[in-house]
Structure formats: C-alpha cells, structure tokens
Amino acid sequence: METFAFYFFAVSITALFAVTVWSKNILYAMTSLAAGMVLISGLFFILGADFLGVVQLIVYVGAVMALYSFAMMFFDATGEIKEKHSHPGLVFLLGGLSAVVMVVIFAAPVIGASAPSFYPPVEGATNPQAVGLVLFTKYLVPFEVAAVMLLVAMIAGIILAGKKMDTSITEVTDDIGDTNERI
Amino acid sequence: MDGYIIGTIIKAILVLAIISALAGFGTYLERKVLAFMQRRLGPMHVGPYGLLQLAADGIKLFTKEDFIPSGANRLIFMIAPIITAATAFIALAAVPLLPEFELFGVTVRPIVADLNIGILFVLGMMAAGLYGPLLAGMAQKNKWGLLGAARTAIQFLSYEVVTGLSILAPIMIVGSLSLIDFNNYQSEGIGSWLIWQQPVAFILFLIAGYAETNRTPFDLLEHEAEIVAGYATEYSGMRWGMFFIGEYANMITIGFLASIVFLGGFNSWGFIPGGLAIILKVSFFFFLMLWVRASWPHIRPDQLMWLCWKVLMPLAVINVTLTGLWMMV
Amino acid sequence: MSLEEFKNRNVGEQNYRLVDVGQTPQTGMEKFEQVVKRAVKLELFTGLKVTFREMFKALFGGQMHTTKYPFEKLPIAPRYRAIHEMKRLLESGHYRCIGCGLCEKICIANCIRMDTRYDENQRKEVSEYTINFGRCIFCGYCAEVCPELAIVHGGRYETASEQRASYSTFEDMLTPLDQLAQQSEFPGFGAVSDDADKKIKKTPLAY
To answer: Which residue stretches of chain C are H helix?
Structure first.
C-alpha cells in the first residue's frame, strides 16, 4: 500500500513538474507547479511527517499564489507564450551543473549512512515537537541564519516598495510632457 | 483495520452528504435572514415558507447547460470549481464535528481523520481552496474574471498571515495542534473557554475567517457592484453551483473552527449536551455571517490589504509576544 | 395601508438631518487613530443593532413590507390613469356617451376611433368605438374633455393579455348591465373635483 502510494506520488509529481518545464502556456505551467507542490506534501504524509507535510502545503500554496499574481501581470494567461532563448548553451551548462550538484547532495547520505547520529530521535515527542527540538539544537545556526536572511529580504522589500508609499497612487498626476515624448 | 477503513469511508460519505445538503440549505437560510433584516419575506412560494426553494434551485442548476466560453482554457476552466468544492470538504475531514457517541454498541468518533496537526491541515486546505477562484478567473478570457483572480491573490496574501498568527497564540497555550486537544483543554465549563484568555486572537481569527470564506466585508472576489461577478462571471449551471457549495461548506468549517478553538467546542454546556452545544455555536457563527452581510458595507481591496498588513498583523504579533511572555512568567 | 397613508408615503417629513462625518484622515497616524476610535466606540455594532432591530420588527412587530403582489394588491390612487371605462346612466342604464367625438378629436396619440349614426329615435348612437392601446399614452385628455363623464380612467392596471384588442372595444369598457348597481359616481380621473362649485366663476355678461 505504502509502496503503491509512493510510486503514485512520485510519478505524478515528476509528470506535473515536466509539464511545468515544457508547457508554453503560463496557466498550465503554474497550475502543474502548484499541484506538484501539493502532491509533495503527500510524500511527507507517507513518511509520517504530518507537520512538515502541512507546512509544505501552506507555504507553497501561498508562494505559488504570489507567482500567479506575477504571471497575471506579465502574461496573457489564456494564450501561448513565445519563449526567447538567447544563450541556450549557458542555460544548458548551469542547469546541468545544478542538477549534478543536487544529485550529489541527495546521494551523499548513501556514503554517510553508517555515520553515527549525534542527536538520536527523542522518544515520545510528537511530530511538531520533534521538528522544534531538531531546529533548536542541531540546526540552530542555519535556522537563525535563515531568519536573518528573511528579515533582510523583508526590509529590502519594504524599502523597494515603500519609496512612494506616502502618496496614494490615485493622487499621482501623470506628467503630460513625459507622455507626449513617449508618443 | 478493515472496520476502520469501512468506518472512515462511511463517515466521509456521511460528512459529504450532510454538509453539502446543509450548504444548500444555507443558501435558503441566507436569503431568508437577509430578507427579514430588510423587512422582506424572502422565498415564499416553493413549498411551505419557501422551504423547497433548495430543490427548485438544485433542479435549475443541474439542468442548465454546461457552458464553456470560447477563448477560455478548457481544462483549467473545468477543474477550477472542483478545486473549491473538494478542498472545502477535505478540510472538513480533520474537524471533529460532534462528541463521541454510542451507536449499536460501537463508539463512533465523528471525525473522518484525526490528525495530530488538525488545525494546520484545515487552514492549509482552506487556503488551497482559493486556487478555485484564482484559476477560474484566469482561465476565462474575461476582464472581470481576471480582476476577480487578481483580487483572490491579494486577498489570500493578505489574510493568510493574520490567520496563522492569530491562531498561534491559542496553539501556544494548549500546546497541541490537534482540535480534539483544543476541545479537551476547555472541558471545565464556560470559564475555561479560550476566548477569555485570547479575546484579541478570537477577533483576529474571526476577521481573517471572513476574508477566508470571502464573506461580506471582504467580499471582493465577486463584488457585483464593481466587477460583475468576478471569477464566476462566465460560469453557469453546476460548475457555478460548486463554487457556492464550497463557499458555504467553508463557512460551516470556519464556524466549527471558531467554536472548537475559542468557544469550548463540543463540551456539554450546563444542561445542554455537547452535540447540541456545538450545533448551536456553529449556527450562531453562521447567523453572524449573514447578519454582518446585512449590516456592513464592502471594503476596497486596498483597504483590505491596509487592514491586514498594517493593523491586524501587528496586533497578532503583539498578541503572540505577550502570550509568550505571559507563559514564561 | 389605508388610502390616506398610501398617499403620504413618500412625503419628505421624516426630519432629515445632515450627519457630521468630520474630516477624511490624511496621514497614516490619523487613519490609525480613526480606526482605533471607531473600534473603541463600537460603531460597527450599531450597524448590527439596526439590522437586528429591523428583523425583530419585521418578524414580531408585524412590519413586514412585502406585498405578495398577485395575491394582495396595494390600493391605487383614485386619479390613477389605467384602462378606460365607459360609464352608464344610473337611471336608464343607457351608456352616457353622446357621440360628440371630442375624445377622438383631442386624442394626441390618435388612438381613439369612433363612428356614430342616428338610431330610430333620431338620437345619436355609437356604432363603433375602439381605443388602440398599443398607441394610447394614458394622458387622460379624453376623460378630461368628455362633457358627460362617460369615458373615464379606471383602475385596471394589469393589462397583460394575448391580444391588444382585449380591452379596446366599447363593450369591453362599458360597465356591464348587471353591475350597474355597483357603478359609483366616479371620483377618479375625468371627474370634477369636490370643490368645483367654489372654483367656478360666473361668466360675466356685461363689462
């Protein structure tokens, strides 16, 4: 049963992400991305990591929603998009490199499978508690670094967006000379 | 094990049947209550007091032509309403609807799936439900639909933070994400209800819940006066009906969540047994949604963002911080 | 609703007053202050209270506004101008119309058509009389001009029918003979007002 579920999820996720990469319709690409992200949470549920599964669900539902809003702004959602490839070689090189790096990273535990675990799983801790324990002991530094990084990103975002925050957009008058020049 | 699976399937079918029937009945209630508040009678002619209006509407919706406009993205257009309806019911799977009861000598727990992260699952699933309006709006080649989709996106990005942060403080107090634990925490009468410890969180959660179910003060997605019908402009028949069933099921879910998390859940309440108590509470929240719809005006999208990001989110953060300090001391 | 109430239903005596809403807040701080003030004063709940009060009034105070129209009808004003009626003389039961043709002449929509002839008593008799209700604009000139109060505007406003002709012949509009007893001296459009005598001035005979 579990094996069946795993292969079901694995095949659907791969297929959906393939659609994301190859589809020229922005709506199909985005929707399959969102569906794939939701299905990944199924893998977490199979592993018994309910908390991480739900977090995956909530986080990526929101993240892809933000991507949708960009897609809405920049593309015609119902038509096909003409893609521009200016440096196919570079794209191939970078993509291939990152793929190799990912494979090496995920294959590394095979090498270190026999390594002893410094922090054995805590007995009797429920799922969220286990995540909390690991976050605040073994991964404390990455956790804090990530927090600082997010803070920096947030402040940068506020500064970028907040330059004209005091004036309402409806009150901004168009510079007529400027528009004439453009015409 | 077999019994467990069969029981779960029976429970799932029952929840699906009862809640979708209640969602349909909710449309009748909404029309009646809104009518009374405007001193009208509401539907009166189909059946006694218009009670069979639901059947008439159902017949109309089912027999209407399933229409897909030209220029629309067929696949996405067809999937979108299903997302709304399905996620609304999946979210209900993790909600304990009634207290345990005995039936033919078997103890029945009226919850389809007792997850130990229940509340997060429900909120996550309801958040995923907003993909329905978003995809619906983007799949149709209609500017009103697109505007509705854009409003869906900004509404989602606004309220989601408030929902999470407001519910965080009660989670910290109870120390669990399971809705059953929430219920058991408040089992000692009205005094132990979490609303007394967390009034701010309760109000924030309620506001965010109204945004989540896109009920009136935040009914931006299909604001008739501004964008025709928003994401639902091109929909008709049963696909449109599925949006509605999803919306009403979500209203019921939010009612259950608010009652379980803040108002003592299905603990018996004085002489009122627990099952009746939670039904009364959910009915009150449902009525409150209709009441608010009759009383208050819509707000603009920019006002929603302003409210969520500049008022509610800081309040929620302050609330969480104070709760943390109070728990440490 | 009585006729008196009905006539006064839209008269502006409800003591309208201007509400001072103050200045629109400009800066962020002012907006925030406004939100806090309104939240503390619980202004939102006033709205809820009003709607609940209305619901209570409607359900238990008998102040439901709905008229279940096809089953119950509101009274219409006496001077309402709906489908015409032809009146009869109360004494003899003969129709009042003397065939003078003034209504046909004055009709600005040209929708009245009448034909007359002399009967065996050398009285003028109406042989044809139709009103084309596809053209009639219900201006009321015909009733106004009629010297005998024979053609008046009645109160029949439900004029949906399969045929326009359904209402338009003389016989249709004439009061049926068996209902002659119920024919009241018509107060509505085309009738002289109650105080008509006072308003009339004698035609001066000599200057």
So the answer is: 3-7, 28-41, 43-60, 102-106, 141-145, 170-173, 196-199
Number of structural domains found in chain C: 2
Domains and CATH numbers, chain A: 2-80+125-182 (1.20.120.1200)
* Percentages of chain B per state (helix, strand, coil), in multiples of 5: 70, 0, 25
Nearest CB to A78 within list B72, B124, B154:
B72
In angstroms, how far is CA C148 from the centroid of its own chain?
22
Q: Which of residues 45-104 of C touch B (CB under 8 A)?
A: 47-48, 50-52, 54-55, 57-59, 63-66, 68
Structural domain that includes position B61? 2-328
For residue A178, pLDDT over 60 is answered with no
pTM of the model: 0.77
The rounded mean pLDDT for chain A is 78
Q: What is the mean pLDDT of chain C?
A: 80
Most confident of B98-112, C15-29, C173-187: C15-29
With respect to residue C31, please indicate whether it lies within any of the assigned structural domains: yes
Q: Are C125 and C96 in contact (CB under 8 A)?
A: no
B-facing residues of A in 113-142 (CB < 8 A) are 126-128
Say whether both C91 and C185 belong to one domain. yes
Mean pLDDT throughout B5-22? 82
Each residue of B172-219: pLDDT tens digit?
888 888 888 888 888 777 777 878 888 888 888 888 888 888 887 888
- Answer whether B229 touches C (CB < 8 Å): no
Contact C55 B37 (CB under 8 A): yes
Chain A residue numbers with beta carbons less than 8 Å from the beta carbon of B157 are: 62, 65-66, 69
Cβ-based contacts of B125 with chain A (< 8 Å): 57
The rounded distance, in Å, linking the Cα atoms of A173 and C71 is 58
Indicate whether C163 and C110 sit together in one domain: yes
B40 contacts chain C (CB < 8 A):
yes
Among A6-10, A81-85, A114-118, C87-91, the minimum mean pLDDT is found in: A114-118
